Amino acid sequence: MEAVNNFELSAMDRWEIGNSSPLIIAGPCSVETPQQLDETVRGLVANGVKVIRGGVWKPRTRPNSFEGVGHIALPWIKEIKEKYQVKFAIEVASPYHVEKAFEFGIDLFWIGARTSVNPFAVQEIADSLKGVDIPVLVKNPVNPDLALWIGALERINQAGIKKLGAIHRGFSNFNDQVYRNSPTWQIPLELKTRYPNLPILNDPSHICGRRDLLNSVAQMAMDLNFDGLIIESHVNPDQAWSDAAQQVTPEVLGKMIAGLHIRKVAIENPVFQSQLDQIREQIDQVDRELLEVISRRVRLVEKAGEYKKLNNVAIFQIERWKKVFESRPEWGKALQLNHEFVKELYQLIHTESIKKQEEIMEQKMSEEEK
Ligand SMILES: O=C(O)C(=O)C[C@]1(C(=O)O)C=C[C@@H](O)C=C1
């Protein structure tokens, strides 16, 4: 696919919010009290964090949950910013939030997943941002809809915001057994492919929903070359007023960040490059063979389709399909192929078989109509 880049962007190192690479933004899910904020920020600064996050207004799924202390947190934040010389990021969900945040010198805004899902709300925020020069990060909408995410980014960009970035916080799901929000990595990777200059941060806290998984998701983001992380940290996580299970102390966070392997996009080393090129040539060859084999299978499926057409037999053959669908992942196991991967592959293959045979049946019908 051809890469397009119609966002007008300024490079992240010109955002003036702490030039660390990757960019680390950390802080409590919610700002609770002046003391909690002070102790948390003190710990984070001691662990090298320069950009703090903190929820002031919290959109919650259920009523009667803690919805943030609201605008009274803003003077506390202003004081903390001066005391520790840090930058501060908050979520904004309305023009009122934007206006209040400006009044108290907030350095960076993010638009939450429950807001980015709603073009009316995003447009109102975009209109209130006209004429200002502040970094704005747009979280993915709760549902796995790349076009909606891009639409929200475009609205903010068209308001004149050039310090624009995205946050991957995972997607709502009905039955993910592991994550609070499924990472579905192919969506942010597709965003990066289409907009290579758009910085994307990963939010392991909201993907995991529990602290024991944070490290593996943060490392995955680094392996995939994300531009930074936004992580929740609280001086006393178990007592947090919101999202207690996914927060870690500043010390734990500091250790985690220090332990991350930061990958390079590429290296200049000619030996590495020539070896990688050789492996890639072999991959090209295998892909040709793979497509030839797939093409042979599709031709056979067409033959079966013609045969079904002649004998007026239905396309979908449930008993046969069950056998195929159960046996192939088993065959794959013997070849060290992941069970889920083979299942998904065969679902795609079967969808294509149905499509091909449907085309053959339709041909028959139009021939009969003649
Ligand atoms: O076995 C058949 O009847 C086929 O047409 C092949 C095939 C397949 O792709 O494997 C396609 C459609 C059927 O539902 C079952 C299996």
TrEMBL record:
A GO term, aspect molecular function: chorismate mutase activity
Record EC number: 5.4.99.5
Main EC class the enzyme belongs to: isomerase
Keywords: Transferase
Pfam family, one: CM_2
Record-annotated Chorismate mutase domain positions: 270-361
The keyword Transferase appears for this protein: yes
Entry annotated with the keyword Transit peptide: no
InterPro entries attached to this UniProt entry: Aldolase_TIM, Chorismate_II_sf, Class-I_DAHP_synthase, CM_dom_sf, CM_II_prokaryot, DAHP1/KDSA
GO biological process: chorismate metabolic process
Protein name: chorismate mutase
